[in-house]
Amino acid sequence: MYWFSSLLPSLLLPNTLSIPTPDTQIIAPRVFIVNFFASEARAWHNLPQFDILAQNISIPGLSPLFPHIHCAHDGLICQAITGQGEINAASTISALVTSPRFDLRSTYFLLAGIAGVNPKLATVGSVTFARFAVQPGLQHEIDAREKPANFPSGYFGFGTTVPGQYPVWIDGTEVFEVNDALRHVAADLARSATLQDTQECKDLRATYAPAPIYAAGAAPPSIVLCDTLTSDTFWSGVLLAEAFENTTRVLTSRKASACSTQQEDNAVLGALLRGALANLVDFSRIIVMRSGSDFDRQPLGGSAADTLFAPMVAHDVSILNLRNAGLEVAKGIMAGWSATFERGIEPTNYIGDILGSLGGKPDFVPA
Ligand SMILES: *[C@@H]1O[C@H](CO)[C@@H](O)[C@H](O)[C@H]1NC(C)=O
Ligand SMILES: *[C@@H]1O[C@H](CO)[C@@H](O)[C@H](O)[C@H]1NC(C)=O
């Protein structure tokens, strides 16, 4: 049906494609699940609701480890697996966005990955929905053993001379803000998922209970509205965590809460933003979902290394809860398509990047 939509611009409908065949038909998904590695992706395979392995589509520019986009028979739900890290994520999503095989202008992108979580705000097994994605990797670093004695950490903004200052050089991917109204709709849908838990997760959480500041980390898993940090480096420990909380405060005028830590979201959002600038995707249709597989810092009295080296006991539960929550979001978008989602959910907040590229003025940039 979407094939002969009158809205398709001629550039997407070259003459050679005017008679659709299975290999050349343009696919217009309603939901695009974006996973980052194999275990996150497998959780969406062999489900009773849809067979997302019904079509394996090869397009130029995908990861050699994950060379196909997967789609259900009807093409209404698809899955990309980018590979871990910012380069993989940006490259795969750029390839997808510019592929003539897909019409993504009405597609909802559901970023679905696991993450480290800040025990001040969330816990392992929880599923979080972000409004802001912040990239603390874009800054200077002096090793803590060589930093000036008055610096609280070795990290400080590009072009500045002391931690806590707004960066002088801006590259454009430092902060993205997505549709907050859609985020609330997605989180409400996700709340009908049953979140799983295990004794090992409960035992891990209990180690955070003695510190009142980590009450969220000690509480049972839930759906949480809180923001995300992207960094290729899988760091651990309270000092780096607090340094990047500070980076987040500086970059967003204290609007974002540094809650989950992962390796791809700003990269995906950067590629989608460029797609939106070319009218290939709708930036108001992005959901940034992350579940907690581990803590980003040690409990009171613990060590950063022990926390990082410990077995990731919440891995399986975080994958399952991510899938179960994401499935409710996907089902909700499908079921409410003609009533609500086809038209879209109007953002009431600023959406876009730190540069204001899509129009409007970023509400998180200091005056
Ligand atoms: C698609 O690839 C998966 C493996 O990634 C395989 O299990 C599935 O059968 C393939 N589907 C088709 C239709 O070939
Ligand atoms: C974070 O910022 C606060 C307030 O400016 C400061 O007191 C603290 O030392 C900083 N911590 C780190 C680790 O940068």
UniProtKB/TrEMBL annotation:
Residues 1-18 form the signal peptide. InterPro entries: Nucleoside_phosphorylase_sf, Pur_nuclsid_perm. Keywords: Signal, Transport. GO terms for biological process: nucleoside metabolic process; transmembrane transport. Coiled coil: none annotated. GO terms for molecular function: catalytic activity. It comes from the Eukaryota. GO terms for cellular component: endoplasmic reticulum. Nucleoside permease that transports adenosine and guanosine. Belongs to the NUP family. This is Purine nucleoside permease. It comes from Mycena chlorophos. The lineage of its organism: Eukaryota, Fungi, Dikarya, Basidiomycota, Agaricomycotina.
